[in-house]
Structure formats: C-alpha cells, structure tokens
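hiii so um. not sure if this is the right channel but i have a protein structure encoded as tokens and i wanna go backwards to a sequence. like what aa goes where. can anyone help
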C-alpha cells in the first residue's frame, strides 16, 4: 500500500509543531511510522489495511492553528490532507492511549518469561511505547482451552487482546474458511470450530501477524532460542520458483527458524508454509558431512578428508595414462559427462559446465521440461511477452490461468491473484472517495464484486470460488479452446490494424468490418500471420461462448495477464498460451505474463541450451540416458562416457528404476555432489558433501526472470563446501567473480550476474561489518553450559559481509553507512524489538543486492518468433495433430488408455521440503483422482486400489472419486506423473497382479 510520489504530489502536515512533507495516499498512522515517529498500534497492518478495532493509535487533530481544543481521532482511520495539524504528545492523547492499553491488558496473563514471543513481541513494544508500566488490575482473568491447530502453530488463547488481525488475515486476505472468531465483546475466541490442522497454505503467517503470543511457531519451539541470540542473514527460499526473500536465523550451527524478508515486488509481507517451515533438511540427520569413497572390496564406505577427496576427484577425472596431475580429462574426449541441478546456485552449474564442456553437460530435468524452459526464455528474450512480478500480478484487472494449479505450484502468486480479484471492488470504493487502506469500508462497498478471473483446467482449485469463468475440460479440449481464443485474438488484432490504417489515411473505418474468412492451420501460422498482415478467422459465430467471454474479458481490461506454467508438462499447451499472451500484448501493451516453473533455479536452464546450426539441443536427463545406453545412432559424435558427475539431483525422481540403473551400471565412475544421502548418492563411487541453502551463497533466477543473490548464514560445517569450491582446482575458477565473468562471456544474457561479483568490495564502504546479531545479544544463554559456561565464538562464513556477532552495524543503520542495504535478520531498532517493526517501512533501497535484477527487461526487442511451434509439435513425442485430437472422444480413450494429469500438492512436491516433519505430516496419501463416470467405465471402486500401467512404469494407487474434475482424465501425484508418462491403462488391482509392466 505504499506509493511512490514526486515532490509535487506531497502535502504539508504539522505534527507536534513540526512541519513535514508527506504522501497524501496513506493514512495518518502509516505516515507517522514512515516518518520514524513512535505511534503505537495493534489492529493495523500495512498489507491488511485499517479497521479501527484496537483504538491504540489515538492522536489529537486540530482544525487549524487557532484551534486549541482539537478532537481525538484514530490515526489509522484518518486520511492525510494538506494543512493537517496533529499532536501525538498532548496530555489527552497520551492518557487515552495509556488507559486503552491498560484495559486491553486486564485479561492478558503477563507471562512474558515463559512466552516464546518474549523479546520479539509487538505487544511488549506497544505497551512500553504507550507508557503503561504499572499493573493495577486485581480481578480474575478469563481462561480458555487451547486447540491443536496442526504441526506448524502453537495456540495460547489466554494471551489474546482481540485485535482481529488473525481472522482478517486468514479469512479476508487468504480466503481460508476453517478459522474464525467466536463469542462477543470481551469473550472472544479465535480458532477453529473443532481442533485440527489449519488447511490454508499461509496459516504459518499467523505467528507473525499476531501481535502477541497467541500463535507461535511450533517447529521453532522444538529448538527455541531467544531472538537476541539468533544470528541471521538474508537469502532466497530454496523451494518453488518464485524467488521469495527470506531471513535465516541460526544458533549453534543449526537453522532455527525462517522469517519473511519483505520484498514488495515478490513476497511482500507473507511466505507460504513451505517457505516458513521447509528448512529442516539443513539440520537433517541424513545430511552429508564428509566425503565418502566406495570400497567395493568389503562393501563399505571410507571417510576421506577434503584434501584426499580432491585428490580422488582429480584421479577419477584424469586420463588413465597420464601422470601429470594438472592434465585433467579434456572436454574433447567426452569421457566425462555431468548432470546439473535445478535446486543449486547458478555458479555451481557454471563451474560444472566449465569442467566437462557444454556438449557433455546435461540439465538435471527431463528433456521435455528443458524444452519448455527454453520456450519461456526465448519468449522473454524476444519480448513477445512481458513477464510480470507478483506485485504487478496483484495490481492487474483481469487474469487468465491456463492449466496451472498455482495454489500449490506458486502459492505466493495465488495469494496475489486472490487480492487481484478484489480490485474491481477497490475501484468502486475509490469512485466514492475511499482509499484502498480503508479495509472495512472498502469490503462493505465491494460486497461480491470481483475482477474477472478465467480458469481453464482439468480440475477445480482453491481459486475456483473466485473465478468469473471456469472451464473444466481435458488437456486435448483445452488446446482446442486455446486455439479458438488465439484465433479470435488474431482476428481482433487484424481488425485493429486495419482500423488504425483507415484512420491514418482518413478513410471510413467501417469498410474494414467485413474481413474475408480464411482459416489458419496451426499456432505457428497464427504467429507468422500476425507479422505478414494476413486475415485470420472472421466468422466469430464459430467460437464457443466461453471463448467469447474470455476474449471480451481480456480485451476490456486495461492490464490483463496470462498465467500458465510447466505443471502440465505439455509443450503444445505452453506454446499456445505464449501465443495468446503475445497477441494480447499487441492488443493491450500493458498486458503481462507469468510462467510458473517447477524448481527454485530451473529457469536458467532455458538459457544454457546449445544451439547447433539453428537447432536447439535439449540435453536433459532423457538425453543423458540415451547417450549412456548408446542409442544416439551411428551419426553421433559422442563417445561412451566412463565417468559421471551428478550435481544435487536425485535422478530417481525423474526416471524409472530399471532404466536408470541400467544406465548407471554402464558407467565406471559415479561422482555425486549433494547435501543429502539421496538414492542417487547411494549409487556413487565418490560422494562430496555440499552446503545447504543456509551454508551457501550465490545467485538464483526466479520464474519471473529476476536474478537475485542469497547470502550464507552458517559457515560450511565439517567438510561441506559449495560445489564450485570442490571443482575450483580443476576449473581454474577460484572465486564467484571468475565464474560470473566466464558466464557473461559464454551466455551474454547472464552478463548482469557480474553485478554480484563485488561481494568482496561491500565492506569497503564502511569501516564496520554488518552485525548478524541484534545489539541486545546477551551471551547468557550458552547452549553447552552443562559442559562449559563459556560459549565459543561462531565461525564466520567466508566471503559474506556479516560478522557473526553484535559487533557491527545494526540493520536499521545500514542505509546510512553501508554501500548496500542487505538487511540481515536482525529486524531490530530502538523501541521496536518485534519483527513486525520492520513492516513500518517499505523497500527504500534500489540496490540489486536487495531488489535483484530483472534479467529479461534488459533484452533487446525482436520481431522474430521466439519459438517455432511447428518444430515444437514435431518434437513432442506421441502428440496428436489438431485434426485427430478433435476427433478423439472419451469413449475411445477408455478402451485404449487414459490421459493422465499431474495433481499438484504444496506439501508433497518439493524435494527438500519433504525432509521437514511438519511438511511431511501435511502431505496427503498418494491417490488416483478420477471422475465417477470414468471410474464406472473402468470398473473401479472408490477406496480400493487400482493398477496404473503408464508409458514407462507402473504404480498402484487408492481410488478417490472427484465429481468436479474432467471425466476424460485421471489425476496422479506430480512425482508419479513424471515416471508414468501422459497416458496409462487403468484397471482394478484384482486380477492384474501379473501384468505390472508399462503399456
């Protein structure tokens, strides 16, 4: 809710006889906090707006300089206007605030010494700022029974002060319906109707939203440390592809908690539950701490030192007949190949590619996913579409979501779309003079008014209740519908061009309304027709009603956007979606696009494609298998490899066991660099331990195309190193700066990464380093006091600007003395101990270290198509043509095989997050999701197991019936979909035990 304003937009107000120039778009409370004035509040939140429930932000407003009496107003409900005269320090205001908080605190248990919010409590801060020091109430306090709310939150209702923040956040902002407020007056209860796990994907934010200790972080409770003894640093969430900014807090070399690090363009104030609680892999007992060498003689593993491990690595990569330790395997021999990782930093993949050569470097995802990533990157680079940030998505006025369940694959984007749906109501309120921060009044006026949201999918989603148009059909039918939308947009574009030409020539525009009919044959034709002034469909009667409504909705909006992604794993669907977004951008220059990818750093794979004579080479895991098994053909120049390096990728997640193990058995030496003992690591001859996201630093490219840098919070424990460090002696790349320079030379689109090469220069801007602990650090809570009361000084992570103590520049002073503003975790400033104090201000820094670099906004415009859709269709294995697709019906599918669709789930789909017990406990049991009519045709019974024989492998799943989904498809979990393929024969388990092979 912060707005950028020029000096001419500012107004003058007077607060306690001091004049200020401020923005007129904020309420008085926000203005005072932005000015650094300590005005207490409870119910207000900069993202949730104002409802005036707690009455704690009272100030006195005067009509003019002559008014000596004034009147009390609530600052959060008072708009700022020019000439306003305010007093925060007059006797009446101070007394009102003191009396109000004393009344609020009458029912509070005052249990700060045992409360986990102690030292990080907004209530403590506001009580002190309000001047309420002495407790006079001697009556009996109310008591409540607490509820079990799941594995992520503790519940202590006795601490509640009735500010309503939690219910406003959970129900109004996040759309949850399993949490509410019960009772009235001073007898309020905030919780569920019955005990149980909170269902909303953002429920964990209640621990931060609540200004007291009613909701606290349950995983943090298991290894609790007071805030002032935590050391922190900023980094990027290691799970989904949105690039949310987080703060990692550690103590005793263990990650203790994750908190949101506000980035207004991405995550804003809130993180999903995966981002908040999916960090336990960094502390897991299966973490690799030392290099391991397989000893085949006695079938054991030998622990090596880091020096011995590097020698062994050099030995495995050196030619057998070479005694020169510096003469490592040349790239030309092709005897060593490598597989990169979509969950590690860009620098690590670059170092590995430098070692083996691009021709021997395989991207750590399936070929089809590489193809789709390249399609997205090509569209961004050619400026065919404009990738939106999450903030821009939230501000748009219409959206089309195409076959992507963003509530599970991109939860923070889904939360933004939920707010987007309110924009129509906000605009209606603005016409009546109400600002968007007046939350209660705006919602009262808006009622059920919603901005247009169209969803095309095979099943309903958590956003279905917000959709103004939802089409539930099979993927084949989706392509037909999307082609209709594409054709009609092309028709509208051609009409617009002719009308513009007529106006330019001062001719009558009506002569161009009768456009001759000429059908187009493919998506590629549509895209090329646009550039050659041909005339597409004119007979709009042939379009379905849904097509007409969706097109009209998109073209009526000022800032429409298209959202799709890689969930469907269907290049044709993605290609058509990109064409629609491209056409929409030509009709609506402000139109945007968001392509959701699958992992934290997979988008940059789309930039690492080798282009040979105009044909892209998608070297993913499938190509790796093909090469190892000698199936490339006689014309292949590749030699059979004898050594494989796998970087932070569990190949078993992407390939069926038999085929993968046959390929691995064909390789003499397998080297795995990873942080966990994955099934792939268990197959290795040499394992090198890498650091977790908390022990590593480097760059990530989000699905928006934003290049960001994350810092290490913990120094590498034991012998854990960043992968590029393990390889540095072999690659001659001894620092991130050298890797960045190598990348910029070989992949010019990544040249801005050199901005982050100045890490060593950060501290030159100040004689002090940045403190990773608050100034209040006590050093009185020695963890190992039973052995030694003197706590050892932590090891500082090398190469970071942070010092592992309080002896440096505090976060709130950095903007004054540092050349960058990378707020470390210590969100602390005088009088504001709570993390919520950081919400007083927006992102004031424009440094790339805090905001990142939007990579594709620097791309040169191009009129060339980003991708050849015809070649795309040819390379799609098993894809039907448009004609055959239109003739296919569900009865024909059931007699042969069923089209499978992936079912996304936030708690089950992200590899590293699954190591966290709270996340794992929320993961649903794998099941086959199927429409009752299709199940009846297959003789399936709900609650019984079914046999699924896919294109590559087979599985057994329990049947779950779903009336809301398309009757032409069956849904399987995301992880199984990758292994099974797009089509499968499904039958009851009984009688099929002997036919487990794939179709």
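sure thing!! here u go:
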């Amino acid at each position: 809710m912060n707005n950028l304003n020029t000096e001419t937009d500012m107004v003058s107000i007077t607060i306690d006889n001091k004049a200020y120039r401020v923005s007129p778009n904020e309420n008085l409370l926000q203005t005072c906090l932005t000015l650094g004035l300590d005005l207490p509040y409870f119910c207000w939140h900069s993202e949730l707006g104002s409802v005036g429930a707690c009455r704690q932000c009272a100030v006195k407003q005067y009509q003019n300089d002559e008014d000596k009496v004034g009147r009390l107003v609530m600052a959060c409900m008072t708009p700022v206007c020019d000439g306003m005269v305010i007093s925060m320090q007059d006797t009446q205001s101070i007394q009102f605030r003191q009396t109000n908080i004393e009344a609020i605190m009458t029912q509070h248990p005052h249990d700060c010494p045992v409360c986990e919010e102690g030292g990080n409590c907004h209530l403590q801060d506001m009580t002190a700022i309000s001047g309420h020091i002495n407790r006079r109430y001697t009556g009996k306090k109310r008591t409540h029974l607490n509820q079990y709310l799941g594995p992520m939150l503790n519940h202590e209702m006795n601490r509640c002060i009735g500010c309503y923040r939690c219910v406003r956040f959970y129900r109004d902002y996040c759309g949850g319906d399993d949490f509410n407020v019960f009772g009235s007056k001073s007898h309020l209860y905030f919780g569920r109707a019955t005990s149980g796990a909170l269902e909303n994907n953002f429920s964990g934010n209640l621990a931060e939203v609540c200004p007291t200790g009613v909701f606290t972080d349950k995983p943090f409770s298991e290894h609790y440390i007071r805030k002032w003894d935590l050391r922190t640093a900023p980094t990027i969430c290691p799970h989904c592809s949105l690039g949310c900014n987080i703060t990692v807090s550690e103590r005793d070399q263990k990650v203790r908690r994750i908190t949101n690090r506000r980035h207004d363009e991405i995550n804003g104030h809130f993180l999903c539950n995966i981002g908040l609680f999916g960090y336990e892999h960094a502390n897991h007992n299966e973490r690799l701490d030392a290099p391991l060498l397989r000893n085949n003689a006695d079938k054991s593993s030998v622990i090596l030192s880091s020096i011995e491990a590097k020698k062994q690595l050099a030995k495995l990569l050196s030619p057998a007949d070479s005694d020169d330790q510096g003469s490592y395997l040349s790239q030309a021999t092709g005897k060593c190949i490598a597989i990169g990782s979509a969950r590690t930093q860009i620098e690590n993949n670059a170092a590995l590619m430098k070692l083996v050569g691009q021709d021997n470097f395989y991207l750590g995802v399936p070929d089809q996913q590489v193809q789709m990533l390249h399609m997205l990157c090509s569209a961004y680079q050619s400026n065919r579409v404009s990738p939106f940030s999450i903030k821009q998505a939230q501000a748009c006025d219409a959206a089309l979501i195409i076959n992507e369940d963003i509530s599970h694959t991109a939860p923070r984007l889904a939360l933004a779309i939920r707010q987007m749906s309110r924009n129509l109501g906000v605009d209606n309120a603005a016409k009546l003079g109400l600002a968007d921060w007046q939350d209660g009044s705006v919602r009262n006026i808006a009622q059920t008014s919603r901005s247009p949201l169209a969803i095309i999918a095979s099943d309903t989603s958590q956003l279905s209740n917000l959709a103004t148009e939802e089409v539930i059909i099979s993927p084949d039918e989706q392509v037909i519908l999307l082609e209709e939308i594409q054709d009609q947009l092309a028709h509208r574009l051609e009409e617009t061009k002719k009308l513009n030409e007529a106006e330019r020539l001062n001719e009558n525009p009506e002569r161009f309304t009768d456009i001759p009919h000429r059908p187009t044959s493919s998506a590629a034709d549509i895209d090329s027709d646009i550039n050659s002034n041909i005339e597409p469909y004119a007979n709009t009667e042939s379009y379905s009603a849904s097509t007409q409504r969706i097109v009209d909705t998109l073209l009526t909006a000022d800032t429409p956007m298209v959202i799709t992604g890689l969930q469907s794993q269907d290049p044709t669907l993605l290609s058509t979606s990109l064409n629609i977004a491209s056409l929409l951008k030509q009709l609506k220059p402000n139109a945007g696009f968001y392509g959701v990818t699958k992992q934290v750093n997979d988008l940059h794979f789309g930039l690492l494609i080798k282009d040979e004579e105009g044909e892209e080479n998608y070297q993913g895991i499938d190509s790796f298998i093909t090469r190892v098994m000698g199936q490339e053909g006689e014309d292949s120049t590749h030699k059979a490899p004898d050594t494989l390096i796998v970087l932070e990728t569990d190949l078993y997640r992407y390939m069926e066991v038999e085929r993968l193990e046959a390929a691995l058995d064909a390789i003499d030496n397998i080297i795995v660099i990873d942080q966990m003992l994955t099934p792939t690591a268990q197959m290795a001859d040499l394992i090198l331990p890498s650091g977790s996201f908390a022990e590593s630093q480097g760059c990530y490219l989000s699905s928006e195309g934003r290049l960001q840098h994350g810092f290490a919070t913990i120094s590498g424990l034991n012998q854990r190193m960043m992968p590029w460090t393990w390889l540095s002696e072999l690659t001659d790349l001894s620092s991130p700066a050298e890797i960045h320079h190598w990348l910029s030379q070989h992949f010019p689109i990544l040249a801005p990464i050199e901005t982050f090469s100045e890490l060593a220069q950060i501290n030159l801007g100040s004689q002090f380093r940045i403190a990773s602990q608050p100034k209040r650090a006590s050093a009185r809570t020695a963890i190992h006091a039973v052995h030694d009361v003197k706590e050892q000084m932590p090891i500082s992570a090398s190469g970071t600007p942070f010092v592992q103590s309080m002896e440096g520049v505090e976060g709130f002073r950095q903007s004054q003395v540092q050349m960058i503003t990378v707020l470390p975790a210590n969100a602390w400033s005088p009088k504001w101990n709570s993390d919520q104090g950081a919400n007083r201000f927006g992102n004031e820094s424009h440094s790339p270290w805090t905001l990142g670099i939007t990579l594709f906004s620097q791309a040169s415009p191009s009129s060339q198509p980003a991708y050849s859709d015809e070649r795309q269709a040819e390379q799609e294995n098993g894809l039907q043509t448009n004609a055959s697709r239109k003739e296919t019906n569900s009865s024909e599918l059931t007699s042969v095989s069923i089209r499978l669709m992936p079912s996304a789930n936030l708690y089950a789909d992200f590899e590293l997050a699954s190591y966290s017990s709270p996340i794992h406990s929320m993961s649903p049991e794998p099941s086959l999701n199927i429409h009752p009519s299709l199940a009846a045709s297959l003789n399936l019974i709900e609650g019984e197991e079914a046999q699924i024989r896919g294109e590559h492998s087979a599985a057994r799943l329990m049947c779950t019936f779903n009336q809301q989904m398309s009757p032409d498809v069956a849904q399987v979990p995301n992880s199984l979909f990758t292994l099974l393929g797009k089509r499968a024969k499904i039958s009851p388990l009984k009688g099929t035990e002997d036919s487990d092979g794939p179709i």
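oh and The longest helix spans residues 475-504.
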